[in-house]
Design a protein that fits this description.
Length: about 120
């Protein structure tokens, strides 16, 4: 992969993580519509979340629980792409620094326009 593509991929990963940290509900929802397709699906061990409205509720709940209430921030780690797939590691850390409070891996399948259509969280 050339340097320009890697920079774009890292920017995509940072935009994805920024949604989870966004305090303003309107900006958060706008970012969701820019990142996921209208029928985009996020699959977690706990459930399946389909469409902008449902994703918005899930992400807002996570913001309230982890960012606002506990002072944690989500951060992108290593990111790789392969055709229309992106693999991204993430961490959740105290905003003021400290030990990792949570981490995982995302596997994203993208649509032709570069938005997420399937989002698997591990």
């Amino acid at each position: 992969m050339n340097r320009q593509n890697q920079e774009q991929l890292q920017q995509f990963a940072e935009r994805y993580m920024a949604v989870w940290n966004e305090a303003d509900a309107e900006r958060r929802y706008k970012s969701i519509t820019e990142l996921w397709t209208e029928d985009g699906v996020q699959c977690t061990p706990e459930g399946e979340y389909r469409g902008h409205q449902v994703l918005g509720k899930r992400i807002s709940t996570n913001y309230e629980t982890f960012v606002k209430a506990q002072g944690l921030l989500f951060r992108a780690g290593n990111v790789e792409e392969h055709h229309d797939a992106v693999k991204l590691s993430w961490e959740m850390l105290p905003a003021q620094g400290g030990e990792v409070a949570g981490s995982g891996v995302l596997f994203l399948l993208l649509s032709d326009d570069g938005r997420v259509r399937l989002d698997y969280q591990f």
